[in-house]
């Protein structure tokens, strides 16, 4: 259930200071450099599922430029990482609009994001597991936590690593996801007595099965779980492997999603194609269209080695490891206090 009390402001500051020092110590020990990238940009992440805090920059001479607060420092960090700067990270403040104000979401939060040249997905997974263990050590003095009445070990050997295809085989009755179609998902939903809408995209159908069939299993898992190798339609910015799967993973503790990690797509032609598709989908959904980040496309042309990247929600990690059930407990000025429900005013 998590703790039944809230920390005072001093305790929150001490806890977060301890975590920040542990994170910086971990990355320094692994030869990373810390960067600071812009919060307000003209070309933010254009994933169709994201909504931004938008504004207009007006100069003293009256020139105006439209832009938005970043949802991730990804684009900027990819412009920096190179053969000369092969390992880089940031403790970034990021912003997402049109999301819930609840236990797991805050409009402004801390994203720990890092990139490493010459690293595979599996190497990145192991690095992520070690990072979580290091933060647990800093908070609790060990790598064991209690969550929902279960004792969970965060030691590297106690994590479960499983593919999305295997989870869908076990819990959705689907044989394969390497060449999956909308009809395949619809058939699985029908067999499970679940509905869908005619205008659902293939991602909508996938998420419906994930939410109803897989997420409950992850919540009940006595071990932390790495879910890897997503179907190609869920690749976002990940590379596609020879088996037709996206080289992407997510980490879960007690069913709570912590991060999105990728063997990063570095092909500038394919990246532009995906950006164009995302713009079309944003237009269909009636969302703001931002220009493609041409500087990012140019930066990708200079990367000629495998690139691993990961974005981890630090507030959620702190919440879990400190034994709380809401990120409100570990954020100094949570959105639910800054913007209380209308009926409470």
Describe what this molecule looks like in 3D.
The protein has an eight-stranded mixed beta sheet, sandwiched between helices. A three-stranded antiparallel beta sheet has the order 2-4-3, with no helix packed on it. Strands 7-8 form a two-stranded antiparallel ribbon. With 345 residues, it is α+β, with helices and mostly antiparallel strands. It has a domain at 9-148 and 270-344: 2-Layer Sandwich (BirA Bifunctional Protein, domain 2). It has helices at 9-29, 74-80, 121-140, 164-172, 182-191, 202-220, 268-285, 294-300, 314-322, 335-338, and strands at residues 33-34, 40-41, 54-58, 64-69, 87-95, 108-117, 144-147, 150-153, 160-163, 225-231, 245-253, 256-263, 307-313. Helix 1 packs across helix 3 (121-140) and helix 2 crosses helix 8. The radius of gyration is 20 Å and the shape is globular.
Q: What is the string of helix and strand elements?
A: HEEEEHEEHEEEHHHEEEHHEHH
Uncertain spans = none
Gyration radius (Cα, Å) is 20 Å
Spatial gap, N to C terminus: 29 Å
What is the C-level CATH assignment of the domain at 9-148 and 270-344?
Answer: Alpha Beta
Largest sheet: 8 strands, mixed
Strand order of the largest sheet: 1-5-6-13-12-11-10-9
User: What's the CATH H-level superfamily name of the domain at 9-148 and 270-344?
Assistant: Bira Bifunctional Protein, Domain 2
């Amino acid at each position: 259930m998590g703790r039944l009390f809230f920390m005072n402001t001093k305790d929150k500051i001490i806890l977060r200071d301890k975590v920040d020092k542990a994170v910086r110590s971990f990355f320094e020990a692994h030869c990373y450099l810390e960067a600071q990238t812009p919060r307000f940009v003209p070309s933010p992440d254009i994933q169709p599922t994201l909504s931004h805090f938008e504004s207009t920059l007006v100069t003293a001479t009256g020139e105006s430029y439209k832009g938005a607060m970043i949802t991730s420092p990804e684009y900027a960090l990819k412009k920096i990482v190179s053969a000369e700067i092969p390992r880089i990270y940031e403790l970034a403040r990021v912003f997402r609009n049109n999301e819930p104000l609840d236990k797991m979401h805050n409009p402004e939060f801390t994203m720990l994001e890092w990139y490493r040249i010459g690293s595979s997905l599996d190497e990145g997974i192991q690095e992520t597991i070690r990072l979580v263990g290091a933060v647990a050590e800093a908070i609790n003095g060990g790598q064991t936590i209690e969550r929902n009445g279960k004792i969970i070990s965060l030691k590297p050997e106690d994590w479960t690593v499983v593919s999305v295809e295997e989870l869908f085989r076990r819990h959705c009755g689907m044989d394969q996801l390497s060449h999956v179609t909308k009809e395949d998902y619809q058939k699985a939903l029908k067999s499970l007595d679940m509905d869908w809408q005619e205008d659902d995209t293939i991602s909508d159908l996938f998420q419906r099965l994930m939410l109803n069939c897989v997420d409950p299993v992850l919540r009940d898992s006595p071990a932390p779980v790495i879910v890897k190798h997503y179907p190609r339609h869920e690749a976002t910015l990940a590379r596609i492997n020879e088996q037709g799967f996206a080289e992407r993973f997510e980490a879960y503790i007690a069913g709570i999603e912590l991060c999105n990690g990728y063997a990063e797509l570095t092909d500038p032609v394919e990246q532009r194609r995906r950006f164009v598709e995302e713009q079309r989908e944003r237009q269909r959904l009636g969302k703001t269209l931002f220009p493609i980040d041409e500087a990012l496309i140019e930066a990708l042309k200079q990367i000629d080695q495998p690139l691993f990247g990961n974005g981890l929600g630090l507030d959620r990690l702190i919440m879990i490891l400190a034994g709380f059930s809401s990120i409100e407990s570990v954020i100094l000025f949570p959105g639910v206090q800054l913007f209380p429900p209308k009926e409470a005013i």
